[in-house]
Structure formats: C-alpha cells, structure tokens
Amino acid sequence: MAAEVNLLQDAILVKALEDFVIAGRELLIKAVKERQEGSIQEFISKKIGSLLGFTVAAADFLNRLSVKKRKDAEEVWKKFYHCSDVRDHVEDFLQLEVDWDEFLKGLDKELNLCERFPCQVPLGGYLSGEVTLTDAKSGQSVSLGSYFGKDKSLLLVLLRHFARDHMAELESNQGLLDALSVRVLVISFGCCEGARYWLEETGCKYDMLLDPERRIYNAFGLGSSVYKVWSFSSLFLYAEYKVSNCQFLQTPANVVNDIYQFGGDFVLDDDGKVIYFHPSKTPADRPTVTALLTAISEASPGH
C-alpha cells in the first residue's frame, strides 16, 4: 500500500513539474520573441506584463503539491530525488530559473539599470534637513528638517510598489518603537492622487511625504531593476501570496506607478545622522522590527 502511495505521489510531482516548466518555458520564449520584434522601451511598457502568467503557473504547481511555498515543494521533491524522472524534471525546473533570470538581467543591462549606485549619504553620514517635500495629505510643502530633533530617531520608510505588510508590522509594534523614541515617516516618489489612494486603502496612520524628484532615494543610492521585479524568485513569491489568498493593492488606472524603483529603511538620529541603513535588495526585502530596534538601541548614546 505504501509503495502504491509513493508511486502516485511520484507521478503527481513529475506531472506538476513538467506542466510548470512547459508553461514557464512558453512564457519565456514568447517574451524573448517580443523583445526581438520591437524596442526595449515598447517591450517594457506594453508587453512585459505577460510574464505575470508565471504566477498563475507557479500557484497551480504549488496547489497540485498541496504546499504553499517553494521551499515546501523542494522538500517534497527531495523525498523522491532517487527517482530519475523526478531528478530530470527538477533539473529542467532549475534550468528554467537560470534562463528566465538571464533574460531579465539582459534587460537591465540594455536599460543601464542597477538596483544600487554610489550613495551620497552613507551610514554615518548626514541627510540634509533642507530638502523640501510635499505632505501627501495636505499638499503643503514641508522640509525634512521639520521632523528632526525632539530627542527622537526618525525611521524613513522609502516606499516602492511592495511595502504594505512592512507598514502593518511597524504599526503593530508601535509600542516598541515608542519605547525607543522612534518616529516613522513614510516617503514616496509617487503623485498625490496615488499616495492618498495608498493611504486610504492601507489605513496607514503615519505621515507621508512625497519626493517626486527622488532626491532622498538618490541620496541613499537607490536604483531600479526590471530583473529584480520580474525575476523567477520574485514571481514565485507572488505565487506564494496568491496561494495564501493574499490581496494585492490595485493601482488606479489614472495613476502611473514606477514598479522598478527600489526602496529601503533608514534611521536618522535627531541631528539627521544616518544610524541605520537598509537598502532593499529585492522588491519584498524589508528589515524586521527586531532588526530595526536592535540597530537603533545599539546606536543610542551611552549604549
């Protein structure tokens, strides 16, 4: 009986791997063809969205294995790796990942994009309080320096397309942040309409300032990347969210959003000195509240 169950699971795994690789390979072949047929700008603006089909295929793959994450799927195939069919299909899976990411890295190279470039304000440097930004709620101009002082550290959360969970974690740990006299300030490069929609939909209570010229983003050396947004691992993460029934925030049609800009978390002391520096390495990369609190505590005078 146990042998029959193992054979059935083996067959399910092989078929799930095969179907996923076929679907992913077809999407990649189509994308390569479309890139060759027109300009890079046309492909990025009008055609790259077809790669979202990956998340559908990946979610189906996870569901068929009755798991919610890629790491869980890997544990399943490890149990059957002694079977040659499983090994062959896993190798096909991994080769698809290599080919997928190489294609996207090529797009970054064509566009001369990079996720990081030399920053003007490193860890230990000072961010000027004279930078003028726009209050997302009132539309009024305010200086960043108006948030300095008052014996409080200032946590700057520089947004990109993917930070709702991070903001929720900060809000749920507000008591711990208050205990260390940390004030949270959200920075976005978007427009007022998009910012107000985001604030309303997320219920975020923190102040938000707009930096449309991306002066603060540039000061911290935050770049852009097509590869990191559409990479195999990023899209698989979106599939994991899909399997877990997580809802994605939909951007209104009249709001143009640059999904390729990277964000990060940076903490300033009351003089504007950078005491914590975390540029995001992937779209979903954010520090934990524990990491933030530890860094702030260690940087406090007298520690």
From TrEMBL:
Source taxon at top rank: Eukaryota
Swiss-Prot/TrEMBL GO biological process terms: prostaglandin biosynthetic process
Gene Ontology molecular-function annotations: prostaglandin F synthase activity
A single cellular component GO annotation: cytoplasm
Record SUPFAM superfamilies: Thioredoxin-like
InterPro entries recorded: PXL2A/B/C, Thioredoxin-like_sf
UniProt protein name: Uncharacterized protein
Organism: Lepisosteus oculatus
